[in-house]
Amino acid sequence: MKRFFTILMIGSLIAAAAFSQEDSDSVVLNPKTGFPEITEKPFLTFDYGPSVSWVTRLQKQQGRSNFVFEDTMVGLYFSMRLENMMPINSMLRFAAYYPIYSTFNKVPQTPKQTLLYGFDLFFGTIFEADMWKYIRIQFSPGVHFLYQLSDSWHYMSLGVGAMLASEFPISERWTITLNAFGSFDYANLGSNAAMFPFDLSWQYQAAIGVRYSRKKPNQYSYITSRKDIRQKAVESGPDAE
Predict the structure, then answer these.
(1) Least confident of 20-24, 36-40, 60-64, 225-229
(2) CA 228, 231, 236, 238 torsion: positive or negative?
(3) Cys staple from 183: which of 112, 144, 193, 226, with CB 3.0 to 4.6 Å?
(4) Cα(81)–Cα(88) distance, rounded to whole angstroms?
């Protein structure tokens, strides 16, 4: 887990340096403040879709194998992004989950209650790079919080996480997103810390989402509208051949 945390921090620094350098030539600084000039007003975009989460909690033991608790949860996520914010954009992601499979040291556990759920919250900054204009790669390091209700405890975890996302512009307004998320958390928030503490906790998530936006149209897309085709034909003129 220390290796995972180190890789996460190094990846954040490398991504910040690489992605920010990509836009450094086009940024205009305000002569009075010295900060980047905001030429366009900030706005919000939203994406949402199904998500899967794998949560692992570990209790270290002396003289025997460690106790490993694993939960697989399915649910939906909703993400809100603040665009046109200099020097960097940010995002807030919320997900609601229902646990469908739990194990203790790889042994399946049968839940005693029907109403079990979890809530996941992530806030981070967005570093973005274009690949051939038809694939956008985003890296988002940030702060992660998880609340989960189990048969016996209310788990609350707080830590650091990072999201790697790929965006595929289907049309001018519609975009498909693929998200992979990982976090390393402190899982002993709340009253269960004194009675049932954990030594390590980490989580992985995968999600597919969709976004419709009028304020952030896709300049390049896989499906070209008839309006764009007619506009290109007009711009090319009769001497296009």
Answers:
(1) 20-24
(2) positive
(3) 144
(4) 11
pLDDT in tens, 82-91: 988 867 899 9
Q: Is the CB of residue 47 less than 8 Å from the CB of residue 80?
A: no
pTM, two decimals, is 0.77
